[in-house]
Amino acid sequence: MSLSFKAFTESFPLAREFRISRGAKTQADVITVLVSDGHYYGWGESVPYARYNESIKSVLAQLEDIKGAFASVCDTEDLLTLLPAGSARNALDAALWDLKAKVKGKSVASLANLYTVQRCYTAQTLSIDTPEGMKNQALEIKNAPLIKIKLDEHQVLERLAAIHEASPQSRLIVDANEGWQVAMLNELLPDMAKLGVALIEQPVPAEADEELAGLNSPVILCADESCHVSADIERLAKYYQAVNIKLDKTGGLTEAIRAYHAAKEHNLQIMIGCMVGSSLAMAPAYGLCADVQFVDLDGPLLVAQDRADGFTFDQGRMIQPEPFLWGLPGQYGQQGLARLWNELPD
């Protein structure tokens, strides 16, 4: 069986400006990949990320460079040597898993020996704003079980206090996106614990991880920008109590499963995270959420208009509807993907 693929870009306007410590964005620019064996079609989505020296242009170039070699690919394992970890490999990996589900007549969860996700609550993300603005964002989501808060180095406790006042029952995740120093973290930790913060993502720059050694934190510290593939886990276990597994970092579900098992082996808590994208980008990661401590797959809630037949959300609960856009057996969506394939240039 010879496989081929086509890649193109799409943009999803966001529901509101999304601001983190490194800057702001108003749309999600994604790479969409279609894979075909000449009869069935699979698709996947990834989000190039500038923090990892990726752009739409560079990822498309990566994909173009391996088109010839891709014809001999038989399974997602083959991609691990064909492409490095990153969003190019993620999009192809997702499309291959989706194709495999169609060809084998089994769900991706079954093919990958993953637990069936019965119930999943995702964090809902607040972007950086004034304390009052972030309080209003928290009020809009009405005591969500889990709230993720983007913060820079300014007004940290003022912002957290405003959010805690608006949503006192919510557990809070703070994401500093490498924006703090260890001295600042040490100073903030006692008050953050009192304000309901359950986990802090990547408080310090990735190259400063070693400075966290021996820190007795009352809040779980989670590696994000430092954690890419399974080989990173053993080192990170010296400094963190949790890792954030994102498929755009691992280069797809195939390597994400390895990272998941490595984290379990090192007694680390696990967060399944995402970049800002549509339900198509979240779908492969969702399969890992049955037995993890934190889920952050609210990308579809951040875009103004999600893809058809994507996830639905009810007060933080993430629900996979039927029909669904990815990873299930059957002919659902095949006509639409075939039509799209024929419209795209070779």
UniProtKB/TrEMBL annotation:
Cofactors (names) = Mg(2+)
- Which keywords fit this entry according to its UniProt record? Isomerase, Magnesium, Metal-binding
Q: Which Gene3D superfamilies match?
A: Enolase-like C-terminal domain, Enolase-like, N-terminal domain
Q: Where is the Mandelate racemase/muconate lactonizing enzyme C-terminal domain?
A: 131-222
InterPro entries, A to Z? DgoD-like, Dipeptide_epimerase, Enolase-like_C_sf, Enolase-like_N, Enolase_C-like, Mandel_Rmase/mucon_lact_enz_CS, Mandelate_racemase_C, Mandelate_racemase_N_dom
In Pfam terms, one family for this protein is: MR_MLE_N
Q: Does the keyword Isomerase apply?
A: yes
Question: Which SMART domains would you find in this protein's record?
Answer: MR_MLE (SM00922)
Q: Does the keyword Cell membrane apply?
A: no
The transmembrane segments are none
Q: What is this protein called?
A: Dipeptide epimerase
Q: Which family does it belong to?
A: Belongs to the mandelate racemase/muconate lactonizing enzyme family.
Species source reads: Alteromonas oceani
